[in-house]
Each structure stands twice: as structure tokens, then as C-alpha cells.
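forwarding from the other thread:

> can someone predict this with alpha-D-ribofuranose?

sure thing
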Amino acid sequence: MKNIILFADPGIDDTLAIMYALLNPEIKVLGIVSSYGNVDKEQATDNIAYLLKLAGRTDIPIIGGANSPSSGKIPTYYPEIHGQEGLGPIRPPENFSGELTNFSKIYTIIEENDDVTIVDVGRNTSLASLYLLGENIAKEVNEFYIMGGAFLVPGNVTASAEANFYGDPIASELIVKNLDNLYIAPLNVTNKAIVTLEHIKIIQQMTDNPLVEIIDDIMKYYIDAYTKLVPGINGAPLHDVVTLSLMVNPDMGKTIRRDVEVLTSGSGQGTSIADFRVSSKPAEKNINIYLEFDYQLFLEDFIKVMTGKK
Ligand code: RIB
Ligand code: CA
């Protein structure tokens, strides 16, 4: 069983990741940190609250994270991929709004629970703030899983940068330099975690869970958006879900232990670099980059968790 605090910015793949975490019997969600990213923080908070309501899990605290990146610049949002409100065509009901718990709640959760894992599937601003406000966090948290980066493969925001690292490269660089027991799921693997409308249909035929009822509309929007970016893709990558799936099933992928650098400025902003030459040495800290994973095992795990059936 993994006790997790999930940092998210829903966002369509974040939404599926929240569902996956709530439905997975191997995961106990202790709190969800809401931050800017795919949408603004207020919208992300409303979306998280709506998902928790559908899941009947309003007991899970929504913790207020960052409003904007460390640079102080106004964030860029991505309505063309995630929809105006972050859930594709779905909107939380009129006048529905989520309530936030103070950021300090994260320290309380970590104090009160053994073996906490932090999973960050958004921009890294909130996680970097957590570290800066209490550096012991690096020792008190069991392990960190983050979705971010692109190693020797194209980026998805610029030629070389992935969206989470690009969105706040100062925070990402701070994290990769200071956290230990860090597992990174970059585009190298997440771009391949493609889920199609056929998979969604199979899932919906196997369960009548109200949480899962909305995923066909959401995924259709997301797949249409991806099809414009990558003609013929027939599906869309669930970056944030595969990060959680790797946390629960670490042997589903292969990692390489290397130091990582994130470029913080210039045309390479957000680019992630690691030395993969044969002569290069493993990182002193336990920093692991997933470069491969088993797609079939991922699909089986995703369908099993979303349906509650083997
Ligand atoms: O690059 C993929 C990441 O950026 C995911 O976390 C997705 O939600 C987007 O924001
Ligand atoms: Ca995300």
C-alpha cells in the first residue's frame, strides 16, 4: 500500500490520474495539492473538488499550492489540450467551488503517517516550495515520483522541453538537485502510454462507477486535441496516470540512475539533461529516470484499476 500526497493541476491526464489513485486499492490518497499548470489554481481546485465529490471522497483534503511559477511570470494555460475549464467539455456544476486547506497541512500529513510518497504530476513550484520551507522534507518523505522532462527525445512545448519542467524550470532544477529517492517519468515513457477510445469503451462497459461515467467525453476531447498535434495517433498519452502506475508497479519499467540538470533559461528553458554515455557514473543520490516501460502491462493495470475487475 502506498500512502501518497498527489500534487496535480487538472487538466485531463491529471483528472484520470486522480481517478486512478482514488480507485486503486494499492494507493491511499492522504491529500491532493492543487496548483496552477494546465489551468489556473482556482479552476484546478474546483475540478479536484468535483472529482472527489463524484468519488464520494470529500474527506480527502485539497491543499492550496502555487499560483504561479518561481520566475513570477504569468503562467501559460493550455485550453486547446485540456479544455477551457480543464476537463474537456465537462464543467463542474454552476456555483460549485472547492475549499482549500492551508499548505502547512502537508507537514502534518507527513508527521502523522509512515512511509509517505509524494507524487507530483504538475509544474514543480509547490514541491520546490515545500522543500524550501522545510528542507528535512527530503529525508522525511519515503520517495518522490514526478512526471517531467524529456531525455534525448523531443519535448512537447519546445523542441527539447516537456511542459512540467518548462513551466517552472527553476523549481524543477531545485528538485532534481536536492531530493533523494527521486523517480522521474519523462516523455520517453509517458508519450507511449496511449489510451484509445476503445479502451475507454471497454472500461465503461465493465463498471457503472459515477467517477468513470465522465471519462468518454473527457478523453474524446483530449484525443481530438492530440490528433491535431500528432496525426494518426489514435488515442492520447496519459502522462500522469503512467507515473502513478509506475509507482505502484516499479518493475513495469526500467530506470537508469543518473544526475539530472534542468536548464532554467534561454531557448533551452526546461530542457532536461543526463549523461548516458557508457563511461558515465550513476548518481550519488538515488535519482532514477524511467526510460522504458511495458505498455501492455500498463494497459492491463489501467483497465483493472478503473474497472475494479481483474
Ligand atoms: O508534459 C506532460 C505534462 O504536462 C502532464 O503532467 C500534463 O498534465 C501536462 O501538463
Ligand atoms: Ca499534469
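Residues 9, 11, 13-14, 37-38, 121-122, 240 surround calcium ion (ligand 2) (CB under 6 Å). thats all i got for now
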